[in-house]
Structure formats: C-alpha cells, structure tokens
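Predicting holo structure, tryptophan bound.
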Amino acid sequence: MRKRLIVSAAAGALALLLSVPASAAQAGPGAAGIGDPYFPYAGNGGYDVSHYDIRLKYQPATDELEGTTTILATATQDLTRFNLDFVLQVKEVLVNGRPARFATSGEQELEITPARTIARGSAVTVVVRYADKPGEVERGGYSAWIRTPDGGVVANEPEGAAWWYPSNDHPTDKATFDVSVLVPNGTQAISNGTLTTSQRPGWTRYNYRQAKPQATYLATLAVGKFDIRQDTTPGGLPVITAYSPDLGVNAGAARASVERTGELTDWLSGVFGPYPFDSVGGYVPNVPTGYALETQNQIFYSPAQFARGSNTSVVVHELAHQWFGDSVSVQRWSEIWLNEGFARYSQWLWSEHENEGTGQELADFIYDLYPAGDPFWTVRPGDPGADRLFAGAVYDRGAIAIQALRNTVGDEKLFAILKGWQSERKYGNATIQQFQAYAERVSGKPLGELFNTWLYTPGKPAAGTSGIGGAPAVAASASAPAGSAGLAPGGAPGARPEPKSWKKIQETNTVHEHEHGQR
Ligand code: TRP
Ligand code: ZN
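Done. Tokens:
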C-alpha cells in the first residue's frame, strides 16, 4: 500500500502514460531491491503489497516455527519473476493458486517464478509455506530472532521481518496485517494491533489485527510467557500491555512506566494531533538487549530501559514514533531524522512539561557538551550514512535542529507545523525536503540555510546560530536545582547547568550505542 498525495499520484500516472505506452512495457523480472541507496537489496521491485496474512505455529521448547503467509499484491510491471525478502527455509510457494518455482539468492532474496507471467496492474496472491528454527538462522553472523528462555522475539530496525515472514521489506510498501499465532497453552503471543484469542485442546491461538497501513519493520512478534493486560483510555482507545513474568528487579519500574502509555498517548495527541492507530500499548519481554523499538501500536521495550528505575521518557520517545516514523514513514532510510529527531525532541517537550529542563536548555547543554573537534559534529543527521543511521547525533543534533526551527518560526508556528504535517502525510512516506517545504509554507519563512546548517553540514555551527549555544544565562535557568551554583559536571565556571532530564534522556541511547558501537 503506497499512499501518496492524490495530486502526485495522478501526476505520476500521467507522466507514465506520456512516456511509456503500456503495451510496449517489457515483461521481465522484478528488481531485487526497491531502490534505497543505503540498502540496495531492501525491498523489491515490480509489485506493491496491500495485505499480509501471517499464520504461525511456534514451539518455544524447540524453537520450531511453522508458517503460512499469504500476500495480496498488485503487479506494477509485467512480471516473469519477482523477489520477496526472507531468510527461513521455504517448503512451497503458490502464485494465484498455482505452484511456483522458487530459489534463494544473496543475503535474503527469495526468487519466485510463477507458472504464468503476471500482467501489470493485476492482483497477485502469493502463498508461502515455511518451517525453520529462526533463532539458528544467521546472516552476516547475526540473527534478528532473539531467543528467550521461554520463546523468542523479533523487533529490529531497519530489518527484522525476514526472520518470521516473507515480505517486500521496505517502509515505502506499507500494508495491513493479520497475524495469527498458535502456541501451546501457558504460552502467549504478542504482535501488533487488536487482539482476539481462541482455544483448541492443548493450544491457544492469538489473533492480532493491524487495520492501518504498517511498514514491514514495524511488525513485531513475541512468543513466551506474558502477563497481558487489556484496558481502554478515557477516550476509548484500547490499550494492550504485556510483561514477561521474568523481569526480576526491573518488574516494578517497567510497569510503572509502560502502564502510563494511555496517559502519555493522550498528552502527545495534544502536541501532534489525533493518535493515528486503533490501539496502543507496549510489551516487555525477558530479552538481554538494551533498546526499545517503536513497533506499531505495540511497542517493544527491553527490561534494561528500566534498570535505573521508571522511565516515562523512553515511553514518550517510542509513542512519539507512532506519529513520526510509523504513521509518517521515511521514503528512504537516509531520511531517518524524520523519525529520530522528532522522537528525541518529544522527550525534550516532555522534560519541559515536567519542569526538568526546556528544549532550549537541552539544546544549549548539548551544544556545549561536545567541543568543535568532537566526532559528534562529523555526523550529518539529514544523511548520516547506512552505518551511522542511529548515531547519537541523529537524535541529539537532530533535536537541536528542531529547537533551531522553533527559535526561527516561534512556538505557535512550530506546533502548527508538527500537527499539520501529521495530518497531511498520515499513513504515508516523506522526505526531509518535503518537511522543509511544508515548514516554509506554514511559517512563510525561507528555511534552507537552517536545514543546511543543522542537518547537512558537518562541523559545529557558530555559537548563537538559530539561537543555539549563545551566552549562558545561568541565573535565568529554570532547571538549576536549588542551591546549585550552575556548574556542569565538568565544573567549568559559568557553564550551563545540566538539565534534570538529561541523564534519563541520554540513557535511551547509551544502552543502544553500546550494542552497535556507534556514537
Ligand atoms: N528506533 C529505535 C529507537 O530510537 C532504535 C533502534 C535502532 C533499534 N535500531 C534498532 C531498536 C534495532 C531495535 C533494534 O527507539
Ligand atoms: Zn527512536
């Protein structure tokens, strides 16, 4: 499901009609990648998926996963062959009800040759049957399937889907999902969206429905022992939360944070506009990882996020992604600032709301923290490179860029931009350039230099640029703790005090940086 503005879709169709008469199009294989410069083999060409129906059976004791995934798609060219992204062992493929030949190539390509050529514009139904032990399947020494003592979890970015279902694995091909998981009684399953269950002797089936468009990496699966809670917000939005009974000393802090999901969703709705999906929630499995991920509706949290106590900041970050990342998704992975810059800035807004430091104070503090020669300033948040997608600067310098925008257009326009952008791009994909154009339209100001300086130019901008890093105003600071002399941890006299929220916000990624060795 590729949602574009109606105007541009019509213009695109017109351009196509003018340049290539449909009858002259050559039938051939679909491309092995969708055309993302950072990840040439991510996604595939030649078709557009509208729905995934994923039926699974999983045995936690042995890690045996059996699956049948049915994909509804439309061919975008005459197709003699097409690829799906998948790494598990395939038993059988049917295309429009007929057995199809299949082969594997590269890291994750499943090449499917249908019995008949598929005409451009026609509907295609693909059934893939498979069975494997996903925890044992590695690519480049790595498995996205995390084994736990009582099951397994997939939550990964930019790619994780290939370890549990075949797909067109790129954020530009969004689709609706039904995920149905059969597990032995006493085991539970978590996925995205609304939940119903059914029983048969010895087994329970968990049916999750995602009725809104969802990018493939935002689909998550967890099987294991979970305490699942279902509730509704005061506004009537279903809330599903789930906790491994195995969280040990982190159990209380995890619940004290994730149980605030409904309240924090309501607060963010005030900032970004209506919550875009049919349910909201989060789950905390017993995984050894450190990160959290904005899996759609049903957020994945590692217990390590709650190791130092409750953490509403990480919940705000992941919930903010439901708007910035999930509803409005990147057009290609180089546009990651549209996700992480805004999710981080939401943590700053929450800090502001909680009187733990304003956006301006956090921006100035970070500006001072890294001297001009620090590698922090070498990353361009607007185009960081495939290996620095989640570098600290994408988040922190990325959020400074939003504070710089706020300083330039004022509060009223900034919040109008955030809300308007969300309603204009809902369930679609976007680029930073489009965001800049939108912000210029709403504010009536040229913003090219601002975006260039903060997102695309390596090096530390001069103090005072866009109102960031000007002379410290220690006396005026609202966040200096009583009795503090306004000294930074380094103790430099006259330096800005550390905002109270800073450590907690930073912890969202220090856990993360350790794992990926990125700054
Ligand atoms: N998008 C996640 C966040 O900021 C971070 C993240 C990056 C991640 N890569 C990941 C999480 C891989 C899980 C797996 O919240
Ligand atoms: Zn994030």
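Confidence is low (pLDDT under 50) at residues 1-24, 475-491, 512-519.
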